[in-house]
Each structure stands twice: as structure tokens, then as C-alpha cells.
Fold:
Amino acid sequence: MNIVWIGRIQKLLFPLLFPLSIVFGKVLYLRRILYSNLFSKRIRGVKIIGVGGITLGGVGKTPVVIRIAKALKDRGKRVCVIVSGYGGKIKVPVLVSDGDDVFFDTPFVSDEALLIANRTNVPVISARDRIKGIEYAKDMGFKYVILDDSFQYLKVKKSYEILVLDGENPFADKLLFPAGALRESKSCIKFADQIISVYKRKVEGPAYMGKKAMFRSVGIFDREGKRIFPHKAFIFCAIGNPLSFRESVKEMNVEIVGRRFFMDHHMYTDKDKEKLICLKDKKNADVLLTTPKDMIKLKDFDCAYLDYVLEIEDMDGLIRKIENA
Structure:
């Protein structure tokens, strides 16, 4: 989904959606209480680390997953990442990557699965049924399983639950879906073992809540991985929060001469690519600029991407807490 488009619809239909949000919130809270006390399944023999969010759109969940997966691997842990399979055609649990080779591509598995595989060299499993995915990982000998986007996934008890917030706007408009951007009431943050507040830019002082994490742009690169320095760019992406990408480009002192935002997980067609090339030429842009996640889906397409790293404070302390959970 794309929070820009969703926000426009919510404004138009707010009087109708607000009463539904009240009901939605109460149902979700009751669901969480029931699962926590009665229905959640415990899987022994493997540590399950949940990483998720409380708002719609991209807040940095997948980059947090990537950092934790790499840190656990660096400590010699048998770790894998499980993604939900949303956005991919394959429904049964499959090994997307064994840490060395990638066995599937879009549209069979999601762009998140491929991004995590390419950025971590950690095994990645795609599973619509995440309990089956965990059992699959356990049978393969993994001792640590990271569940991507799983704060609302309550069917399994987690060893350690990480909630990722937008450090500058942690609870969005403070309204529950469908009238707002909250996936659950903000009171549900008490169910997290650790909160990470992610900032899209450098900020001074402590985090709004929990540990502070900051994105740092490292440059613009072409398809071959060579750093380039364009003056004008036409930007496009298909991510949950495209506005954060736009702001990151601005911070690189690149003039944005045009933009095109697609829905999250959008699969680019030949018509899309032709249109983007026309828009680039029309706006006299030096480059078509997108995100690393989108780049994965754009084989043999002449565009560049803005790369970044996510820096989490006291990463060693966080990993120790996970190990001791």
C-alpha cells in the first residue's frame, strides 16, 4: 500500500470511516489479549525475534531486520529471516536464499525477501503461513528466526518482540485504520520488549522512545554499483512511504524535476518503464532515480538508486538482549 494514496481516500471518507476505526480498535485489542493468553502457539528449540510496526507505510522495519540478521550472523549464530510472502505468487514455505545463492525472483517471491537476501547473505524463507515457515526453518537447523513485519502476527509466541516507530511521527495521525494510519492502538506498545525509533535524518539528543536509529544516505549508484553525481533526477518508487524517499533525495542536494509513486509491491511493466523514460526526457533529468528495493525488480532497466545504511545505537546491547531472551 501507499500511504499517500490511502491518506487521500481517508480524508474524503472520514465521516464514514471514523466509527469503523473505533470498532476496529476494540476488536484488535481484544484479539491481542486473547492470543496472548489463550491461542498463541509456543515453538520450542528456536528463538523467534519479531520485528514490526504499529503504523501503515514504511517506517524502517526491513532495514532493522537486515541490521539484526547481519549482527547475529557476525556472532556465528544460525539465523534466518522469514518474510510473510505477501507480494509473491508462491504460497508454500520456500527457501528464497541459502545465504549464498538466490533461488527465486519476483514475482514469485516479494521484493522484501530479495532485498534482505541481497543485503545480508543470511538465509531467507518466504511463507504465507509463518508457523509452517518457522517449523521449516527449525527442521533446517536454524536456531534464530527473525519474523519480518510481525508485530500484529500473534499466532506464535515470540522470544523477543521489537517495535519500530517513526522517530519524528511515531503514531502518525493518532487515528486507527481505516480512518487513520494506526494498525493498532498506541497502548499496544507495552507488548514490545524493545522499541526502536527510526529517524530519516540525523538528529541530536535521545530517541523519542527506546533506542535511536538513523538512516544515513551513502550516495547514488548506477546499475553496476558505480557512484554517480547527478544534478537533476526524476524519482520513482513503489514503497510504503514514498515521501521519505523524496526527502532523502533532497538531502543529497539533487534537484527533483518530477516524480511518480506506485503502490507498494508494484510489479513494473514494460509500459511503466516506457512511461518513466518519456517523463525523464520530458523533464530533462540526468537520471531516473529509485530505491534499492525497487532496483531489484528492474532488471535491464537504465536507472540509478539512492543507497543508505541504518545505524542503531548500542547494537551490541540489543543483540545481547536477543541472545538472553
